[in-house]
Amino acid sequence: MPVSSLTGTDEATLVALSRGRDARAYSELVRRYEGKIFRLAQHITQNREDAEDVLQETFMRAYEHLDQFQGASKFYTWIVRIAVNQALMKLRRRKSDKSVSLDETIDTGEDTVVREIAAWDEDPEQRFSREELHGLLDSAVQSLDPLYRSVFVLRDIDDLSTEETAEALGLSVPAVKSRLLRARLQLREKLTRFFKRKGDDAFAYL
Amino acid sequence: MTPLLTCKDFLKDLNDYLDESLGAELRARIEQHITECPNCWVIADTTRRTIQIYKGMDPYPIPSDVESRLMQALEKKMAAKQR
After folding, report:
1. Which residues on A lie below 8 Å from B48 (Cβ)?
2. Is A121 exposed, middle or buried (0-12, 13-18, 19+ CB in 10 A)?
3. Mean pLDDT in each 10-residue stretch from start to end of chain A (206 residues)?
4. pLDDT number for residue A110
5. Domain limits at A201?
6. pLDDT confidence of B45, banded at 50, 70, 90?
7. Do B56 and A159 touch (CB under 8 A)?
8. Chain A: closest CA distance from residue B54 (Å)
9. Does position B4 have pLDDT exceeding 70, yes or no?
10. What residues contact residue A41 under an 8 Å CB cut-off, 6+ apart?
11. For site-directed labelling of A97, which of A6, A69, A79, B19 has its Cα 20 to 30 A away?
């Protein structure tokens, strides 16, 4: 597909054109979000093949149902919701004996546990190459419980608001907030293992 | 006098503190707490830095084979819809 002249076009115009079945406009929309949707799908399914299926199904469905997109929310929030549903369907199919849902109640306990408390180096990222750092950050996110993972990816990596994250995942705002806190604290702890100041090995508890 | 914040209270409000969505009074109480409690200071500092590191982390560029299969599937779909 040729690089379109639509690169700088605003999103509302692209959506309107796509509704009128303008293939170039829709391809431009896809190009803007395919990377993020693929990453999100990989985070939820933890499987590249499934993530690719989710990616295709998401943009196919979105095209089919564009007339249902009201424009009250961002286009990205709307397709994230489609992608999350597709990804969950994949997971359910994979573990056919268990139903999987992002809104299942989880026992987060009353207290948020903090086990390791150690100050970080001034610039701990410098100790790692770009690739190492990327790999390390990625695997830390992957090791989170799936229920926290998607909240963290949308809220802190993709920069959606709490309300948008809640809408995209079909969760309540308080559920997003409590999962986000858990996710942030767990990641903080995982990264502490790599980033803590050398020789500073204080353990404490709250 | 307002009672002092406990470490538990601090954790409960940590998200809103880091997202800067707290009212001035509670914010001041949290700041007071972390100047007095080294553990909570470390937690606030390292959690803030955790968020900063991840914020805006670009996705890996989508693999070109994945993208071209996506575009092919879509072109087919869009052509069918136009008919």
Report:
1. none
2. middle
3. 71 92 94 94 90 97 92 88 91 66 52 75 85 90 88 91 90 94 94 82 46
4. 42
5. 102-206
6. very high
7. yes
8. 6
9. yes
10. A50, A51, A52, A54, A55, A58, A83, A86, A87
11. A79
Domain boundary, last residue among A24, A59, A94? A94
| Chain B nearest CA to A72, separation (Å) | 24
* CB pair distance less than 8 Å for B46 and A137: no
- Whether residue A38 and residue B66 make contact (CB cut-off 8 A), yes or no, is yes
Q: Where does A143-172 have alpha helices with state H?
A: 146-152, 162-169
Residue at a domain's end among A73, A94, A115: A94
Q: Say yes or no: domain B7-82 is CATH 1.10.10.
A: yes
Q: What is the distance between the alpha carbons of residues A116 and A190, in angstroms, rounded to a whole number? A: 9
What average pLDDT does this structure show over B24-52?
Answer: 95
- Considering only CB atoms, B70 lies closest to which of A34, A184, A195, namely A34
Within 8 A of A114 by CB-CB distance, chain B residues are: 11, 43
Whether A122 maps to a domain, the answer reads yes
